[in-house]
Amino acid sequence: MRVDWDEADQRALQQLVTKRFAMAAGTYGLALLLTWITVVGGFYQAPVDTALLCAGLILVSQLVFFWIFIRGHNLRFRDPSLTEPQVLVGLVWLTYFLFNLGSNRGSLLVLYLLVLMFAVFLPPKVFVRYAALALFSFIGLSLVDLQLERLVEPQAAILQASVLLVTLVWMCLFVGYVNRLRQRMRQRRFALQAHQETLRGMMRQLEDLAATDELTGLYNRRYFLKRAETEVNRLRKGHQSGLALIDLDHFKRVNDQHGHATGDRVLQSFAAVARSCLRDGDILARYGGEEFVLLLPSTDAEQFSACCERLREAFASAEPANTSLPCGQLSLSVGMTLLDAGDNLDESLQRADEALYRAKHGGRNRCEASWVDVLGSGAERSDGTAG
Ligand SMILES: Nc1nc2c(ncn2[C@@H]2O[C@H](COP(=O)(O)OP(=O)(O)OP(=O)(O)O)[C@@H](O)[C@H]2O)c(=O)[nH]1
């Protein structure tokens, strides 16, 4: 069965299964060493050719597995570590090896457990299947010996089979326990991941709250200053950003004549108008009271002036919802400046503030730029009445 893994999972998984393969291959190496000890010690009761053939087949089988792992073909299977085929190869090889040991096989019975150790993480049902295969293979060896009339000690064979049976039953119970433990751990991991996701969501909400002005939904001053500092530092030589302080005109009068609630709605109305005039990358924040601050990345004097002018006109002609204010009563003044690479944010805000001061004192409802000569012709000054 083909399973799709994402790339990071795939790499981590491949590392893990390759380590397991190395362990299995190492175990085969030790088992082959044992084979040759039995051959040299005279316990091996078949021609040496069979031991050589067996060693060769094991080597080939491991090379095939190695090729499968290296090419990543194992990832096509539900169990990418290929535990079942490995265990099957191990059981077949071990049974053949024990068959050739004749009556000496009892002392090497433990090797069945060694092979089955690789299967302890398989589902318990599958493990029971391989445990039964190991037991019946071993009993089968004694039956074949009996058939060939070379079963020297039948009682010893029965005892060995009983020991294997008891050990395998214990292992099956142990595997069931391990499996339940793993399931519980998996559930806890999922619960933990869900908690982490909730926490992350809450953190995002908190960050949004900490960055937002409650009344207007715009960014607040703290967030703006942090963000603007980053933008200023990011500014490359030859590029400019626009910075503007925007102040609603005679706002105290709105409050005094129409009430604080109406004043609040006017502030919200400004936020809505400004949002509709600005682009996504533009940063607008409530600087305090009825004062706002705007940062327009990657702009020049002409574009920035046009943008602020558009905003001024849009607000002057906006009719705030749920207020008794007639349109025409509302206006704003803007103080603009340009930021160059290496500029200091505080000094730039100071320049914008000075321009705003001029806009207020020049009659309000206008945009003034810090880059315009104060005593000059005022050609770049724009206002709602006449140039
Ligand atoms: N409704 C409302 N009013 C606010 C809020 N924050 C500040 N204000 C009011 O905004 C007014 C600002 O008044 P001033 O600083 O005198 O400025 P102004 O009346 O707009 O006059 P100019 O700026 O010179 O045109 C004050 O009356 C503040 O109480 C707010 O959140 N809601």
TrEMBL record:
The name this protein carries in UniProt is diguanylate cyclase
Report keywords, A-Z.
Membrane, Transmembrane, Transmembrane helix
Cite a single Pfam family from the UniProt record. GGDEF
Catalytic activity annotated for this protein? 2 GTP = 3',3'-c-di-GMP + 2 diphosphate
The record's Gene3D superfamilies line, in alphabetical order, gives: 3.30.70.270
What is the superkingdom listed in this entry's lineage? Bacteria
Spell out where the chain crosses the membrane: 21-44, 50-70, 105-122, 156-179
Stored CDD domains: GGDEF
Q: Where is the GGDEF domain?
A: 239-372
Q: What is its EC number?
A: 2.7.7.65
